[in-house]
Every structure is written in structure tokens, then in C-alpha cells.
Amino acid sequence: MAASYEYEDGGFQQQPDSAGYDPNFVPDSVKSFVVHLYRHIREKNVYEIHQMYESSFQTLSERMFKETPWPSVDAVAHYVDNDHVFCLLYREMWFRHLYARLSPTLKQRIDSWDNYCSLFQVVLHGVVNMQLPNQWLWDMVDEFVYQFQAFCQYRAKMKNKTAEEIALLKQYDQAWNVYGVLNFLQALVEKSTIIQILEREKEGLEEFTATDGYDYSGGSNVLKVLGYFSMIGLLRVHCLLGDYHTGLKCLRPIDITQQGVYTSVIGSHITTIYHYGFANLMLRRYVDAIQEFNKILLYIYKTKQYHQKSPQYEQILKKNEQMYALLAISLSLCPQMKLVEETVNSQLREKYGEKMARMQRYDDEAFALYDELFSYACPKFITPSAPSFEEPLVNYNQDAYRLQLKLFLYEVKQQQLLAGVRTFLKVYSTISLGKLANYMEVDEPTLRTILMTYKHKTHAVDSDGKITSNADVDFYIDEDMIRVVESKPAKKYGDYFLRQIVKLEGIMTDIDRIKLE
């Protein structure tokens, strides 16, 4: 049980604290940790590995390594028979802790890249006979993409780089190369044959989702599950690069309308829907974005209390707030409130109700609000290319973000005239072109152009190549008459009654507590 690895306060020696950190000093509790973890990995005891990885590693990090790295891999290697694969896994955790708690040097960033290369090479070309928890395998892919993003941001801040850093960047120009990152993720997808596994699962010939990706017949889950999570990693990388079509294409084998292995890890679930929703928002597939944001926000609302002790809790709350901002943007550009559950809607109104009302006006203040919400909620876009060392060194870490913001605000401006058209179409079931042109103070040819723009902007091409409508109000032109087709949503009474029942139960409980004299 996990309790066996709770280390007593007197059970470890404190690190020597002379100006810092001795990488070769291994406290007893760390010896015990690596020995037990190594044993459980060899025995394929997934439950115990998960407990040690999620609980003991965090406890020791908090207690002993708050401001220093863990002992070096060379210092612990002889406790685990110098096992090559275990040492790679230990270093992966070592670097992750370093990134989370401290600020890595350029050399450490490069060493972490080398470690990932070695680890993925073993998984791709070696014989890996272990079962690891999904949480750990997800964290590997997630951290791999995060460190790539962090390296691109770091390299793009060239202005204050020292001569030594510039020399290292020139020497290790292949470290965190975008093609290398994409190739590793794609290789994991292909070598794992995960796409074919998911296809066979649909036909009932394979069990992958039902077992959460674990292999109960004595095999290994590592390559399969890494391949699965790499599809989400590819979506994330392509979103960081601004290539939303390719990102969504990489995710297509995973049916996100259903429960899957991606929902077995909260971090993976949130990352998938955040990037899926954001990519759809940028491709004007507002309905898809709204539907998925609504589902995940409702899920977080119902389950976040169960993750309060999780190391990912702060990240869950941050992504939750960002997705509310993206939902506010989506609904301002495509007012489809019928797609949003009552609970999510009330939270949204509380957070952004006033701003959403102002965003409908399409004046300078509205554009400033779109700018503010987009900047708060968008991914940290990257420029993956290396700097030119011959030219004067400048910071270019904001260039990709500014480009995406400019494209987004350009799209918002194009929607400006559509708000007026939508207002009139909501009022009339039929109206002549001349009359509407008169109301809008434009001539008929201009009105036809505006109506064509409305059609274009409220329709999008989905991932199957079909044209779908985002419009809450649609129309067709019959000679010189505009005929309006408004979708009438079926009213949902269930949510309202359930909330009132919960309120009533709360009031009755409060009444029961009152002691009458």
C-alpha cells in the first residue's frame, strides 16, 4: 500500500546546505523511494507505481527538494542495478521537477532534450516490458511538448543572451528542433499502430478503451498509450504553430464525443478539449467549440472538488477560467445560447455577462475586450525557427502571438456588419431587399454583398469536408424577398427543476437545523 512509503520526519537526513546542493548526496528516503519504485516497475505493479509517482514523489519533492533538484541519476543508478531504462525514467522526472520548481539553464534544457530522445528511442526501437500508469505516460507527452514550447520562447528572447549561450545555441542547433519534436510524436503514433487499434475497437475486435489502455495479458501498455497521447500532443504542437487544420486532423482517430482513454487523466481531458475548442474557434466552427467547451466546463464544475489535492489542481482552475473566456468569445461571435447548459450559463454570466453585452456593440471598446479575452485565453504561440545570428539580435518571442491576434481581430471586424443584419432578421419572417437596404442605409447591391458575407461567415467546413451552419438565424432569397428560417430550440425544463429541487432540499435542511423554543 502507499502508506508503506510515507517517510517519517526523522527518517531522512537533511541535505547539506553549503551554498546549495550536492548532486551526489542521496538521502535515505530517496534511496528507499527509487529502490521500491524500481521493484514495482519490474513487477508491473501499476497500482503501487501510481501511488509512488503521484503521492510519494510529490511528498518528497515538497519536503526535501522545494528549492533544489533531486539527486543526480549517477548518484542513484547503483541502487537500481544501473538499469538503463529506469535511469531514463528517473531523469525524465528529475527534469520535470527542475522545470516546475526552478529555472533550467540552457545546458539543462539541451540535456532534457537528449534524455527524451534516448527514452523515446528505447520505446520505439527497443523491447519495453513494463506497465506504467496512464498519468505518468500522459505527463511524459505533456511535458515533452511544454519543454519544446518553453525552449522556443527562451530562444526567441535573444536581446540579453550572453556570448556563451549564443555559442551553445549554435552548437546544439538540433535541440528541440520542431521537425524532431513532430517526428517523435508521429513515430510514436505510427509504431504503436494506435489508429488501427482504435479502428478495430469500433468493430468490436479490440479492447483498448475498456481497459484504459492497460494490457492485462502480461504485455506492455507503454508504446500503445504513448502513441495515443501523442495524437493529443500533435494537436497541441500544431495549435502552438497556428496550424489548426492539421492539429484537428491528428486528433480525428479519437472520438471526443465519447468517453475514452483521454478522459481517464484529468490533465489529458482538459488539454484535449481546450486545444480542440480553440482550433475550432479559429476555424469559425463556433458550434463545435461551444458544444465541447460546455461539456468540459460542466464536467469540471461537477468534479473539481475531487482534484483539490492533485498537483494539477491549479492548472485545472487556470484552464477552466481560460475556457470560460473562450466560450464568451464563441458565444459573442455566434450567439447560440441554446447549446449551453444552465449551470455553465450562470457561471458564464457571473464571470463575463457584462463584457459579453459590451462585445455585441462592435465599437473600439468591444474590440479591446476581444483582444483582452483572446490574449488571456489563447495558447502560448511559438516561432519554431532558430534566430539569425548574423543580424542584430532582437526578441521575437511575441511575433507568433501578435500574428494570431491580428488574424483573430480581423475576423471579428468582418463580423461587425453582421450584427445589424442578424438584428433585422430576428424581427422579420419575410422582408424585401429594398426595405432592408433602406433600414440599413445601404443600396441593394451592397446589401446583397452583406447577405453573402453573412452566409459565408455563419457557415464553416467541418473536418469531413461538409459545409455546416453556425447561424441561429438563417435565410434564403426568393426573387426580391428575404425569407427567414429561425431555428426554434426545444426548451429544456429538466435542469431548471433539478436546480430548484436542490435549492428546496437545502432550505429544508436549514429549517431542520433550527431549534424552536
Summary keywords:
translation initiation factor activity; PCI_dom; about 525 residues; 2 domains; 3-stranded antiparallel beta sheet; eIF3l; 21 helices; single chain; globular
Shape: globular
Arithmetic mean pLDDT: 87
Percent helix among the residues?
A: 55-70%
* Number of helical regions: 21
Rg, rounded, reads 27 Å
Q: Describe the biggest sheet?
A: 3 strands, antiparallel
- Note poorly predicted spans: 1-19
Q: Give the SSE order as H and E letters.
A: HHHHHHHHHHHHHHHHHHEHHEEEEH
Distance between the termini: 52 Å
Task: Write a structural description.
Belongs to the eIF-3 subunit L family. Keywords: Cytoplasm, Initiation factor, Protein biosynthesis. One of its GO terms (biological process) is formation of cytoplasmic translation initiation complex. The chain is mainly alpha-helical and 517 residues long. It has 21 helices and five strands. The chain has helices at residues 28-43, 46-64, 73-77, 84-101, 106-125, 134-156, 163-171, 178-192, 194-202, 222-241, 244-251, 266-282, 286-303, 313-333, 342-359, 364-377, 399-414, 416-427, 433-440, 444-457, 494-513, and strands at residues 430-432, 459-461, 467-469, 473-478, 481-486. The chain is globular, with a radius of gyration of 27 Å. It starts with 27 loop residues before the first helix and ends with a helix.
